[in-house]
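the two lines:
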Amino acid sequence: MRLIASVWPLCDDESVDDLVQLLTPAGQRVEHPDYRLALEAGELLGLYRDMVLVRRMDVEATALQRQGELGLWASCLGQEAAQVGSARAQRPTDMCFPSYREHGVAWVKGVEPLQILGLFRGVNYGGWDPRERYIHVYTLVIGSQALHATGYAMGVQRDDTDDAVVAYFGDGATSQGDLNEALVWASVNAAPVVFFCQNNQWAISEPVERQSRVPIAQRATGFGIPAVRVDGNDVLACHAVMSAALETARDGGGPVFIEAFTYRMGAHTTSDDPSRYRIADELESWRAKDPIDRMRSYLETEGILTADQQLALDADSDALAAAVRAGVLEMRNPEPLDMFDNVYAGAHPLVTAERASYASYLASFVDEARS
Amino acid sequence: MTRMQFRLPDLGEGLTEGEIVAWLVAPGDIVTLNQPIVEVETAKAVVEVPSPYAGVVLALHADAGQTVDVGAPILTVDTGGESTDGAGDAPADGAAAQREAVLVGYGVRTSAARRRPRRAEILAPGHISNGRPVSGQAATDYAVPTQLGAGSAAGADAAGSAVGAVSRTAGDERALAKPPVRKLARSLGVDLATVAGTGPGGLITREDVERAARPVPTVGRNVPFPASPLPPSYDTSRERRIPIKGVRKLTADAVVRSAYSAPHVTEFITVDVTPLMALVKELRADDAFEGVKVTPLMLFSWVLIEAIRRNPFVNATWDELAQEIVLKEYVNLGIAAATPRGLLVPNVKDAQDLSLRELCQGIAALAETAKAGKTPPADLHHGTITITNVGVFGVDTGTPIINPGEAMILALGVIRPQPWVFEGEIAIRQVTTVAVSFDHRMMDGAEGSKVLADLAHMLSSADAFPAWR
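prediction for all of em together
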């Protein structure tokens, strides 16, 4: 009888030595030969403040869902550094294409939290004008925004500007056809797009080692796209790596793939229960690498963050949470016919006919007293 | 005081109910905004629900263990504020003033009115209803008969009646019914146009269709039914239905999968374990085993691992896809445990590498975690062989079902003093019956019997424990 050995060379923790890191989990600054940090004290505080506020908003949104005020919420808990660091590295006119968990990116891009929460309450169909904020509306179909980003980047190329474009997606999206097609197009066209993958270890309940036998970043090199792995819980490293990648894209160097190695501390969405498929120890080990704790520790040690500033920030956080809660409770339902408004940029005969038909359907109802 | 009522929200997407697992607050408690108040288990997850109000808990409206419909009140909080007395007793939901129902948040659905389809109440097209003309379009699209002529109850002859005809005048007109109900009607041969809908707005329901499909009694109209005493009812009024879910469902799936894919053979042997019981006693007194409560199950486990060393084919998996038998060079020893959640089989990983003391500790830890209902998923995966101890229930033995993916399972019966022929005399000895079920695809009676005989030999001599320190 043959003996079958289990072959499972996985991209586990042992293979993360190549992660770019500028701030250790303990909050200690370390240097990296290829990536230097060039940020002023005020900018460092800004990164920290963004992360703290985004987390507070995220926690409040989770509570609102549990209280029946949101239909769903996809928490970004634990991924604040990857999102804030990478978004802060962008210029205002760099367009980015998020999935549905990029609340930190949206925040940095100037999207109002209530515009995001309206989508999860089901009272708007996107929430903001992408042209105004340079961030596309959330994409719920896994990975398709990578194609949009690549197409947009090819447009930027043809406009001959030096803007760069960012596609945000997760580890699970790298298993999708759309993402792989986007890599092909971006690569052969040298499109100015940065593929920013937040590898949060879990595609809902599917661990990353069940999706790839090599580190996710290594997939990009097969398409001829240079790739770098960064500690996704290190906001400084994420900022530095993203800055360098954007420069490469701007300078005609073509696409860059970044794998930000991070962790989804919460559930996939509020409809999910991660305790059914992952062990508590894993969460604990990542808690020790928390992106906010290490930044706070660093800033306090350096004397950049004072106790008064922290108190003021705590107060701002609570005020933000209260405003978010009040704003959500006040949200009004959209008019049923609003859904036809932005299907096409201009008038379209089919949509016009459908709108008229639906209007007459709505008119066929009457109010009646509740029995 | 202002009383705020919290209704169970839809915690997933499209859930209809949730089970109260545990209350984290009690009446009289002060709660703050977002303080966890209750654990609720839905079909999707167990979640902690945070309080939407700050104040004092006045009442809990559901008990732990109770299943509550989404939208039902679960908690009332006094949020302080002005005393409104009687007025405050009304369910003051989060936005009582808001008449409009929102898409989410069942707490604010207090709309006094609801909408129903405007219905042309079985009238000729063009008739005036509610002071407004009913357009021909609306009448044909949405009109449904709410009542049919007297003859309709008897069946198809209703079709000829004037009332029935109105409902079917226009060519494109369809009776109101949902697709599954239409399908049911088709399969039962019921013409929906002849059915009176009893649902909202004249919607034809499943029950309406089933009623219409029932054969019309042929008994003559004037013949009275014989007056006979009612027979005892054997219907649902005296039955209780328990939903199949959670661990019960998982167990059912696992045993069906195993029982109907792996042909089971079960063999038994009765064995004198007096020396083994003496060893249990000795180990309990031994300093090296301090802090571990040694049980016979642990020594049986040790012996089983030894038996696997001698008979490696029992620690294997049938790989149907690859058409291979996979022998495992590691033993992840599963222990079947009756837990508050139901039957779980957590396993001790790499049991073959453990010393007797470590094995005992491992099994004790598994049992303790399982008893507390805290077994993590990792403990339940990758088992290679299982022991089930039905002896704890006082029974002699059983015919266990193999844990899916494994080749064998060992069942332990109760150990008790029995008359036994010992050294040529009848003696009172500690005796038990051991059973193994094995997958006949992977081994035959010869192999299965050899394992069982090996086990019995080791158990009766305690020979397997020469180097237990």
